[in-house]
What does this fold into?
Amino acid sequence: MSRYRFLLEHTNLNFFDIPHGKFKSFWTSKKFGFLSSKLEDHSANIFVVNKSTKFDALFVQNYFNVPFVFLKQETLACIDDGTLKKQEEKKLLDAFKTLAENNISVVVFPERNLTVFGEVAKISINITDFLTKLKMTIKFLTIHGPFFELPVWAKKQNKCEAKFILHSIIKPEKIHGSDSTYINALFNDSMPSSASTYARKFPINITTKTRAEGLEKVVYCCPKCKELFSIYSEFNCIKCSNCGTALEIDENGLIALFNGIEDFDDLSKFQFNELKKLKNLKKPLIQYHNINLLQLSFEDKHKLESKVNVEIFVNKLVYGEKIIKFTEIYDAYLLPDNILKITLKNGTIFGLQGETNENLYILVDLLRIK
It folds into this structure.
């Protein structure tokens, strides 16, 4: 039994074990050496890292040359929701203390969900409060590149460079005595808003010719004619079947400038603003036939339950014989393979899986409309 596994078995197993030295970095010291002295100080730190693809944990474990563990997502979810019991919180704080005493760092992915347009999720007040209680140095990093290598909507994996960017180091004495709101703002200001923020500063050189393929799963509004569900992808372009507009995605994941839209941030904001104008619409926005209804576990393993017809309204979801009001939905987000994972407030979890050209993501944006 490794020393780290022994420690973890005595810390309520809230962590994934990554033994020091087990993995060797596949990135050269020339490309990433400028971070080494800042990251690998061999003292225990909290690394807060964005999560843009399902492979980000592998990117981290192949890069860091210090002993560390991942905080489990289900534990983080309980902290985020405020459902972590006081007794469990004490065990977790004791676990961090034990790890710190043995110079073992912890990696935290604050995002609950995979990013769709490269956006970096805001760190919640609850997670901020918990991290502050640890009284450890916190280092904020982003992994730049992997989002464009395998976006959740992509049909194929792209080839591009990946870089770690260290944005900020916050020591406990800097925030001692400050209120939660100030610390939360400081934490969120320590991370960029999206992958597009650094796409111009740090080129990633996507070499494949299918950069846009799959975007119709998440882009539902044409930026020119504003027609819904008219978008389709072809090689490096997204096109509109209604007006013929074509937008090219370049080698850095940026969009050829069109009507003020030049990156995924702009495109996401544009279509969301258009969607808000339809909030009083009574008829279905979209209807799909023979959608896969899936049984989903917390770990996102899925099993086909049946085929159902789906209707998405501005305030409810209808599938099969069931009607789900948006007020009953706790969370919804897109998984790879065009699976929309839906969690209800009563704890029920299920998935809807569309064809590669069907857009279920619009439901995620509808839930954001107040």
Q: What stands out?
A: The chain is about 25% helix and 25% strand. The first strand starts at residue 15 and ends at 18. Residues 86-101 form the longest helix (16 residues).
